[in-house]
Amino acid sequence: MNERMSANCFGAISPIQKIALYETRSRFYLLGSNNSQTRCRVLKIDRMEPKELNITEDNILYSKDQIKDLVNTIDGGNRIKTGPRSTGSGICKVVSAFGIVGFVRFLEGYYIILITKRTRIAVIGYHSIYKIEDTAMIYIPNDGIRHYHPDESRYVKMFQNIYLSSNFYFSYSYDISNTLQCNMTPVTNDALRELMSGDQSFVFKNVPNERFIWNSYLMKDAKRIMNSEWIIDVVHGFVGQSNLSIYGRSIYITVIARRSNKYAGTRFLKRGANFLGDVANEVETEQIVHDSKLSSLELGCFSSFVQMRGSIPTHWSQSITNIKPKPVISIDIPDPFAITAGNHFNNLFMRYGAPVIILNLVKKREKKKQESLLSEEYMNSVRYLNQFLPPEHHIQYTSFDMARKNKSIGANVMGWLDDIAYNAVCKTGIFTSNEVNGKIGPYQELLGNLGQPGGGLFGKGRLQCGVVRVNCVDCLDRTNTAQFALGRSALGLQLCALGALDRPKLDFDTDCVRLLESLYEDHGDTLALQYGGSQLVHRIKTYRKTSPWTSQGNDIMQTVSRYCRNTFSDTEKQRTMNIFLGLFVPKDGEPQIWDLASDNYLHHPDTLGKGISLRCPLTKWWSDEVMNALPRPLYAVNKPILEISCARIGDERVDCFYDYYRPYELHNLDDTFAYKITHSVRDFMPHFTTIYSPFVIRGRPGKHRDDATKNPMKNPSLTGSSSTSSTTSSTSSSFESDSEGDPSGEFEFMENGSNKVVVAFKSLFPSMEEVYGTCIKKPAPRDVALYEQYVKPRGPVTFAVESSVVEPVKVQVSDESLQIYESYVSMKSKLDISVDLNSIKTYQCFVRNLLGDA
């Protein structure tokens, strides 16, 4: 989300960042608050409805005292009365949370899914990005009206196999579903511009990119009822950040990978694309570089580069019915007019602009055609589509048989990739939020001409127009290495644009490149686990031919692990994903998901006659509005806004500084995010070095990140533990922890029934009188008046100054002496000095003799 769009338009910060769930017999009460607990809202969820989701909200803003009174009133009204006295509690707290993931229903009633533990994983300026560490899945209907179904528990267990504690991310103030360039692009709607040109201040929200939001289905029913302040968008993929220290100047390098929810699935079960052009394993990777000394998006220096990966956009598959290490590749549906590929590339033009550069890493020559079938189909599709495009917007196709080149003796695969990557990045450009700060030199003109003008909030920077699309067969090992090469080339240009580097070339075996390599290794491991079931098999060091011989055993183990998971567990994983994304909705009396022979119709709605759109001419496979916007992406020409409302200056909804630093909380500096982030000096620079530049080639290997820190913030999460640890209404101790602060204990509104020990500020810091025996008091009025007279500059003295110094002795001066002094002073002021001719001759003779002696 934009931090600020213009002088009177601000990006919205979600004010509900703490939640407490209370329950009575008939209702759940969700109490949402901002961090300072000065602004609260209430959601009421009916528990007497067995199968429907009944949510009500009064749209009233409460103070903390009003919420406390409301809870106590509900508690008193729901106590069980037996005789003259009431016994038991009418309302009880279930769990504290940080946000709502959504609501889901299988064959019985609805469940609510809450975020109970989070970790700050990255910062973009003042905006924090959090990783979900744990969630709670709580059944809503009361047990007394519950309609039990024998298959409900199986669906619950299947749903919990989606590990929400593994690589799901969200932010309260930053739109993580869109790129930094999109978030910082000003509104182009004329009506909104005219509205924002007045004196009134506004707060707005961008339209999120639904392609990368994974809880859209879970929030579908609630969005129509709930205020937008309750809604957070959850993105699946990878987020990693490191601190590159350049002689003490901290440059934050962030890698964000957004995995598409369209045609999502596992490795062998999702190949190619559907008829809408959505490809399997589509991931948008963004590399953000910013100078941390100035965090404001408006004034700071920010740069980004976006690339993507995805399966080849045609209808192909690999059968796993027969147990083979490499299943046979087959083209299922011929597409001579490249309709599927046309839909795919039209979407890329809309999102990224032109040019679209393809880097195809699939094999071209084989004894028995397998991968080469895909290369031929891909190249033919691109050749056909380019016939109808203007030459300046042609899809640029580059093929590089990476596996074959790597087998050659003495082959320099990374060298070839670097040349391809550098040329590709120079064609698409990079995004910069402000004017290029590069040093004067041969690369100054290059930096000033990258991309298109008009980047940043005020149009002073440059826009990235176009995207590099990388693929191999699986879009895992080879693809990740190629994306690292692209990221390395882009990083050199980004550092030059920030003025931190004088040439856009980064050498291997430097602290900077090792730090970037570590980020992309984690990036590749995470995506490989999500799609392929194991970590990377062939890493960057494999293609550099610098990996130790012991790594071959690890490669074999990863290959076996990937094969076993793909063969025996991918089907169950695919079913789980279909339920999580809402592609399959369980219904009583109909076949259940485990009874289906295939999920093909779920991802291809056209097969059942659903979602068929009007066909365009085969020679016009693009949209007019997209073509008119090229080479810029569509949002750069016509950017919509989801909602806009009035705001006042100083409102917490627009104060990013207040939201980031939280001056009302007490923090230990060692626990702050800046100390925990991976650091180039602490984690990569060798010991006992005298050269502190991160751009110097190291003759010996430096520290390894895992060995340098005891508790590194390593991402990905490779644990397979379930995150939805509760399916009942009971409180669990696992909900009471957070890496930044526990919401429970701060968000308590009941006056009774609490035995918690509260640590007060007074107990931590005793008074001055207790420690030193004195205290600071207000000075007396007479002392204040005296001080005011003292500090007045050049003020007239209004009181006599008493002095104990002995008066000086008066000296008598004669009239003759006074006349001599007065004539001297008057002569000096008038410069009336007369010198006779004899004196001048005498002086000239003196000077002549002096020079003659010399």
From TrEMBL:
Note the InterPro entries from the entry. Fig4-like (IPR043573), SAC_dom (IPR002013)
GO-annotated biological processes = phosphatidylinositol dephosphorylation
The alphabetized UniProt keywords are: Hydrolase, Membrane
One GO location term (cellular component): endomembrane system
Residues forming the SAC domain are 159-533
GO molecular function list: phosphatidylinositol-3,5-bisphosphate 5-phosphatase activity
Where does it live in the cell?
A: Endomembrane system
Give start-end positions of Low complexity composition bias: 716-736
The principal location of this protein is membrane
Point to the regions of Acidic residues compositional bias: 737-749
Would I find Hydrolase among this entry's keywords? yes
Residue ranges of the region described as Disordered: 703-749
Question: Which ranges does the record mark as transmembrane?
Answer: none
Q: Which PANTHER family match?
A: POLYPHOSPHOINOSITIDE PHOSPHATASE
Give the protein's recorded name: SAC domain-containing protein
